[in-house]
Amino acid sequence: MIEGARWRRWVFFNLPLALFVIGLLFPFYWMMVTTVRPDAELYRPWMAPNYTPFWTLHPTLDHIRYLLDETLFSRWMLNTFFISVLATAISLFCGLLAGYALSRLKFPFAGSLGTGIFITYLVPQTLLFIPLADIIRNFRLGDTPWALILTYPTFLIPFCTWLLMGYFKAIPRELEECARIDGATRWQAMVYIVFPVAVPGILSAGIFAFTLSWNEFIYALVFLSSPEEKTVSVGITSELVRGDVFYWGSLMAGALLGSVPVALIYSLFVEYYVAGITGSIKG
Amino acid sequence: MARVIIRSLNKKFDGVHAVKDVNLEIHDKEFVVLVGPSGCGKTTTLRMVAGLESITSGEILIGDRVVNELPPMDRDIAMVFQNYALYPHMSVYDNMAFGLKMRGFDRIEIANRVQVAAEILGIQEQLQRKPRQLSGGQRQRVALGRAIVRHPQVFLFDEPLSNLDAKLRIQMRVEIKKIHVRLGTTAIYVTHDQVEAMTLGDRVVVMKDGVVQQVGEPLELYNEPANRFVAGFIGSPAMNFATVEVANADGALWARHEGIRIKLPARIADRLRRYLGEKVTLGIRPEDLRVASSSDTADLSFDSVVEVIEKLGSEILLDVKVGPNTMVAAVEPTVKAKIHDRLRLALDPDRLYFFDGTSQAAI
């Protein structure tokens, strides 16, 4: 905490914090205002005498109605949800086992294997989608949700593995040793002791993985083509930008509604999530 | 209940020879303490008995079974760790019941055993709490309880009291001793604290650099240390050492060094005769030094200069300079000495220790 005179607290704490909060929340505010702004106001030139960029006096739900009725938005939401949940589950499962093995078991090249997994995470997706597209085509998975469910783990597993590896390392080895002396096998010690203690870490890895798959764009853009198979991020940008016409109101409505599930998940698990990232375990 | 036999036990970690050829026989119901400075191999030895560390060579028997290849769960042991290792997501009750559940005990038997252990340890009130809500002492009790409920053949303790404050440590020390007397389970206890080792152990094993230095009852180690290391490690404050030369004069043997000239009694002289003209290490325990009175002969006393005075109440510790050596003398609290005083200290000729100058073994 900042000590000393009251003005110091304001200048060095409250003011920067306020700027930060405003800076972070402004895009969402802009999305919200644009969503409810009537077209007449949206396309009004900035020199017009009644130009009000930061608020609207005639809010409308037309854009949302258009988004829900005239596009496949709800379908996209379902697609995204289905793909994200499955990709997250697969990645979390693999990440848990890999993270545990790399942090606890002694085997040759454990260290270099860990680094190797991390390096695969550093390969940019914009390069990786080219060979992956070939694989997807060979397996005839193109334009199905499986194209994404099976390719998202390529970046999610390294990510989950690394996050969980760090978390497992912070759990005292003695806990597990004690369980094994108490009569548990290594597998039981892992399932009954290590995993429950690692819940904050597992949750934050899961949330991160879910968010990454929810927001993923390039694979979804390349591997899916029919409108009814698309995810939210691709669906909105491809169906609501037609040529050089931007349906700004509906675009922003889609972006806003699309970020609701992620925001919900974060707010539900915020405590675990912070504990998971900062790695604090009280025992 | 069982005996534990360790035969020619060795452990090497990537080139470091951590435990060297340890042989030890622990009798049924015995409380054996492994003690030594950090890195002496005591914890590694214990972990090998527990099955948490693989054995490079040698044999470990618990009861009559060779357990070398058995996983920890099949060795019928219980271990108490330095950091308690309580399962943070479980209540105290579940912590204590975990081992029994894993072994398929029925619910009623588990409840009974946990109840009995909780009573022994006085933690009945805490059974529904989580470990993070407990104090250090209570956590250690739970860790003990977790070991007790299992009725194992052997208890293993890995510095269980190191994380407690001094007062609690003494209290828990007594408690562990009581539990051992009550249950009679064979116990192996690792500590770096020689006081803990002396007070708890039926026998004490002193280790250094992976090698067992001496095995014996506490007073045996104190009175007849096998070498200079054991002599310096056991006893508090530690034994004073000085390098002296064995010399012959006036028909007797003398231990001589700057500021020290002690006439050796006949009994010791016989043993030291072959070191005539050589240097040996003289050891004197602080409690065997006292302020000389007029009746003390010059042959068994020496001059010193007081440098530091530590008043402990029951005794006074004087840090004195004797020639180039610094020594500690534990003297009566009635002694009135001031810093820089010259003081003549007398010693008990029967309580002198001599160690070989090169091998450091007791002479």
TrEMBL record, chain A:
It is found in: Cell membrane. InterPro entries: BP-dep_ABC_trans_perm, MetI-like, MetI-like_sf. It is a multi-pass membrane protein. The keyword Transport applies. Residues 77-269 form the ABC transmembrane type-1 domain. Gene3D superfamilies: MetI-like. The chain crosses the membrane at residues 12-32, 76-102, 109-133, 145-168, 189-214, 245-274. GO terms for cellular component: plasma membrane. The keyword Protein biosynthesis does not apply. Keywords: Cell membrane, Membrane, Transmembrane, Transmembrane helix, Transport. GO terms for biological process: transmembrane transport. Its main location: membrane. Belongs to the binding-protein-dependent transport system permease family. This is Sugar ABC transporter permease. It comes from Bradyrhizobium macuxiense. The lineage of its organism: Bacteria, Pseudomonadati, Pseudomonadota, Alphaproteobacteria, Hyphomicrobiales.
Automatic annotation (TrEMBL), chain B:
One of its GO terms (molecular function) is ATP hydrolysis activity. It holds the Pfam family OB_MalK. It is found in: Cell inner membrane. CDD domains: ABC_MalK_N. The keyword Transport applies. It is a peripheral membrane protein. GO terms for biological process: carbohydrate transport. SUPFAM superfamilies: MOP-like (SSF50331), P-loop containing nucleoside triphosphate hydrolases (SSF52540). Involved in beta-(1-->2)glucan export. Transmembrane domains (TMD) form a pore in the inner membrane and the ATP-binding domain (NBD) is responsible for energy generation. This is Glycerol-3-phosphate ABC transporter ATP-binding protein. It comes from Bradyrhizobium macuxiense. The lineage of its organism: Bacteria, Pseudomonadati, Pseudomonadota, Alphaproteobacteria, Hyphomicrobiales.
